[in-house]
C-alpha cells in the first residue's frame, strides 16, 4: 500500500466516523426549519440520511482527485461508501425511532 492510499483511507474513514454527528445536526436543522411537517416519516429519514452521505462523498471525491485516482476507481469506491453509509444512517435513525 502506498502513502496516497493510506491518506485517502484515513480521510474517508474519518469522514465516515463523523457522519453520525453530521446526521444529528442535519436532523436538528430539518426539524427546526419545519421541513419535517411536509415529509412523512420514512421520507424524512431518507432525506436526513442523504445529506451526510452527500457531504462525505463530495469531500472524499476531492481527496481522491487530489491524489490523481482514475474516475472509474473513484466511482466504484464512492458508490460503495454511499450505499453503505446511507443504509447505516437510515437504520440508525430507524432504530432511534424517528419514524
Describe the protein in words.
The protein is mainly alpha-helical. It is built from three helices and no strands. The longest helix is centred in the first third of the chain and has 31 residues, at 3-33. It starts with a helix and ends with a helix. The model has no long low-confidence stretch (mean pLDDT 89).
Q: Which characteristics define this entry?
A:
single chain; 99 residues; mainly alpha; 3 helices; 0% strand
Q: What is the structural class?
A: mainly alpha
Given as residue ranges, the uncertain stretches (5+ residues, pLDDT < 50) are: none
* Mean pLDDT rating: 89
**Biggest sheet, in brief?**
none
Oligomer: single chain
How many β strands by DSSP?
0
> Total number of helical segments?
3
Broad shape: elongated
The helix fraction, in percent, is over 70%
Gyration radius over CA: 15 Å
Outline of the structure:
With 99 residues, the protein is mainly α. It is built from three helices and no strands. Helix 1 packs antiparallel against helix 2 (41-66) and helix 2 packs antiparallel against helix 3 (71-96).
Amino acid at each position: 500500500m502506498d502513502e496516497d492510499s493510506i491518506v485517502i483511507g484515513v480521510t474517508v474513514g474519518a469522514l465516515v466516523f463523523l457522519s453520525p454527528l453530521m446526521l444529528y445536526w442535519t436532523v436538528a436543522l430539518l426539524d427546526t426549519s419545519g421541513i419535517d411537517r411536509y415529509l412523512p416519516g420514512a421520507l424524512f429519514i431518507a432525506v436526513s440520511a442523504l445529506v451526510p452521505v452527500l457531504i462525505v462523498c463530495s469531500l472524499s471525491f476531492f481527496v481522491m482527485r487530489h491524489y490523481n485516482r482514475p474516475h472509474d476507481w473513484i466511482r466504484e469506491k464512492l458508490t460503495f461508501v454511499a450505499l453503505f453509509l446511507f443504509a447505516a444512517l437510515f437504520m440508525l435513525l430507524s432504530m432511534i425511532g424517528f419514524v
